[in-house]
Design goal:
It is a single chain. By secondary structure, this protein is mainly alpha-helical. It has 2 domains: about 1-65, Arc Repressor Mutant, subunit A, CATH 1.10.10; about 65-110. Helix content is about 65%, strand content about 10%. It has helices at about 10-20, 30-50, 65-120; strands at about 5-10, 50-55, 60. A 3-stranded antiparallel β-sheet has the order 1-3-2. Helix 1 crosses helix 2. The longest helix has about 55 residues, at about 65-120. Belongs to the E2F/DP family. It is found in: Nucleus. This is E2F/DP family winged-helix DNA-binding domain-containing protein. Pfam families: DP, WHD_E2F_TDP.
Length: about 130
């Protein structure tokens, strides 16, 4: 099928049967119907693997690595998406940690200002006077 590019099921079955018939000197007889069934089974497996494609009665060669290449390419794209998501989440986490640290520092500063203001007994700043 690969050498022809496009062929039919009957052509392949006939070629295989003729090759096996020429090898009959080994002492084995081959049943043509059995060979056709096995060729049909093999074609179904190749179709499932996307090595060949069947369009009506015509069979077209698609290639061995085509299916694997597509699958690998899709997996690489998924991996890139996951890496980007991880990178974005790391940046978000760092930003949240920075905000948390800043809030902790503000709380600590306010606590120290409150304690020092209570000791002084003065006016706390910021102070707004409204008349």
């Amino acid at each position: 099928v690969e050498a022809k590019g496009r062929t039919t099921y009957n052509e392949v079955a006939d070629e295989i049967y003729s090759e096996l018939k020429s090898m009959a000197h080994i002492g084995q007889g081959f049943d043509e119907k059995n060979i056709r069934r096995r060729v049909y089974d093999a074609f179904n497996v190749l179709i499932a693997l996307r090595v060949i494609a069947k369009e009506k009665k015509e069979i077209r060669w698609m290639g061995l690595s085509n299916y694997r290449y597509e699958k690998i390419k899709k997996l690489e794209e998924v991996r890139k998406e996951h890496v980007n998501k991880i990178r974005n989440k790391k940046a978000l986490l760092q930003e949240i940690e920075k905000q948390f640290d800043d809030l902790q520092n503000i709380m600590l500063r306010n606590q120290t200002l409150e304690s020092s203001a209570e000791n002084v007994n003065g006016i706390r700043l910021p102070f707004v006077l409204v008349k």
